[in-house]
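Model: You mentioned two targets. I'll fold them one after the other.
Researcher: Yes, keep them separate.
Model: Target one:
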Amino acid sequence: MKKSLIFIALLCGLASCVYPYDVELGGESKDVIVLDGNIVVGGKSTLRLSRMYPFSEEFSTHYSEVTGTAWVEDDQGGVYTPDDPLVPRSVFSISTDDAPAGRKYRMGVNVDGARYLSDWLEVKKPPVIEDVYIGYNLDSTAVKVDVTLDGGEDATGYIGISFDETWEFHADYECRYVWDPERKVLYERSEPFPNYWCWRNMSSVMHLINYSDFGTNRINDFTIQSFPTSNNRNHKKYSINIKAITLSEQAFKYIKNLDDITEGMGSLFTPNPGEMPSNIICETDPSVRVMGYVTASLQAERREFIDNRFYSHPTVPTGYLYIPAGVAGMAEAYEFGDYPVDLMNLPKGDKGAYVEGIYWGPLRCIDCVLNGGTKQKPDFWE
């Protein structure tokens, strides 16, 4: 089945980039505010604020962050703001969990004394997440996550889908020894090293699905994630929370166009961003050029868990491990920032002879926090 998979950075708060593309702005040389947002009724609304600087002499355009204040409002007078609403920022997360579904919404931003507003938007009903499959890929070397969806009541032919991942993993080695720098003694631990097990969280960019020419509103087995069986997502337990929204054709085309330019896939016939219709105006001065797009939707969500049934133990790299030479060597290693890793038998030397001893290495070998983890257990963890 034909699938269209597009990675979208502008809606998900990724770092600013340089797009190698010359954007014509009708002779204007000044910078342009870019506002990309997604109003999620019953969830978290997000906004990315940036500024575009055209450099015509270099045939390129530079996007950089700019700070301001932002909010979401409905047509009945409800206002929704981020925490610390007066603190300027460039990436916003606004709680619209309690926003009623039957109202129209718009997003607003104040930047450098100017006020920018999106159009009033009707909230689109979400697609339906019918099924989630987590299992092996064809050659059993990776775990894949497939989603089956239906376009739902407001099916337009276009869906935006993203996900949050959480998994419990461990450090490369379980530390069983402690070095006492005062007494210069290495001894066995009486308790496990506290940062061996951690949780880690990651959020995806948005994928765009174009099913407008499928002849059906059903999208079967759309792969949204894949990772090797040796990946630490498989150490103990893995959870994925899938989120899907309905997009209008105009929103889809606008976002896809920006992504094509970002990825270098634009052609001579690809509209530049300055030519694409936006649904944002500068209320302070309507003649000011504004770029970006705001959507409003209800969001379908579904969370799945798997255990470590797919895990294949990798060969842990040992090139950075070594055995210090005596007490003096261990003291020097500790001052250098290394720690005892474990009692191991590892091949050493050209002939592959095995050397037994307590190997030392960087703290990250035994500390899962330094590998991007957290000791805080998620509220939803089963």
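Model: Target two:
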Amino acid sequence: MGAEEVWLRTRAGEVRSEDCAGHRDGGYVRGDDGSWRRGAMRMKGYVRRWLVAVVCCISGSMVMAQTGAVQGAFQRGAAAMREGRSADAEKAFRDAVKLAPDLADAHLDLGLVLGREGKQEEAVAALRRAIELDPKLPSAHMFLGVFLYQANRRDEAIAALNQELQIDPKNGEALTWMGIVELAAGHPERATGAFDRAAEITPNDLNLLEYRGKAHSQVARDSYARMAQINPNSWQVHKVQAELYADEERHADAIKEYQAAIAQEQRNPDLYEGLGDEYRKLNQLEQAKQAYAKELDLSPQNPIAMYNLGSTDVDLGDHAAGVPLLHAMLERYRGAPVAEYYLGRGLAAEGREAEAAESLERSVKNDPESEIAKRSYYELARLYRKMQRPAEAERALHEYNRLREAQDKRNAEKVQDWRKLGAATAGEGKPSS
């Protein structure tokens, strides 16, 4: 995308984060005391680089209708910004304002440069004048909101961003900034709405997704804290704590919390499912089976409960109990590769080799590049050898090795990525003023 197109799209309220070079850089958040610090929201570099990209995208075609002097002032300002000469850019745009005092674009561009220089109050004044001249000037309200936020005038920033969204409800940048400001203002529940709407417009923006995740996490933490205040010993609080322990892989602690929840709420199948999952992660299969059996007893038509108990039976070697449950599950929930895998294992153990092969082949077909496919190919290789079908056994073994090698490569790349991230984090310096 050329510079002119980016600028035109910006003026139309359609600029995307990926269009502005360096948009995701930075790593600092402005505190209530006005100082910058490293924090959850990467604000300083975000604003600085974003504005450089926007201002540097000024094109002479935007002012062709103006006098040559005005056009020259715009072009000098854009050139100065590209070369990092902010003071010269400010002078050029001030010249443009003097030459064309009723031109809203001139005041907008001056405001952007002033904001780039950290002169938030002057930037706000310039942008307000631009809006006064043209109340629907694309992106003007958004930039006003950004600079008001930088000046710690959050309520005014939110009002300005709301004005932008009334003009252009699908402005992903304005929605993102709305979420950022609401989150900084201590309103994570409002921020999630803005971030969710922005994510519908730019679903692959990693910067946005990070903010969105933080907002939702904050809402969850606030909800959990409120639950604990209302009744710290409720079964709901124990359930939430169990889930948090499970996420941290503190499975023994999670089991204790699930047991505490069940002591108060003995008819909830979800609690028994969670308990069974934690026992299974610790390879305590008999305890897992008991929990899953209770889950199925409370929810007899639940296909997930059928799978949980049936697959655990297969792991325990009780194939006669597990196979019927897996068959019943697959009648209700077709196309489940992991259930087909366990069914294939159970059928093979019962000597029903042809049926087992069909089930394992279905598992592979439904999810051909997964961990379950790798395991299914391994079982198929063994099964086909037993069935005296060497060509198919060789094919299955080849696919197993292919998937295993691909997984090893992904794991190695992940380790390298983490090492690079650690090195980059260790090398980060303090924010510049």
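Researcher: Noted. Anything on target two?
Model: The chain has a mean pLDDT of 84.
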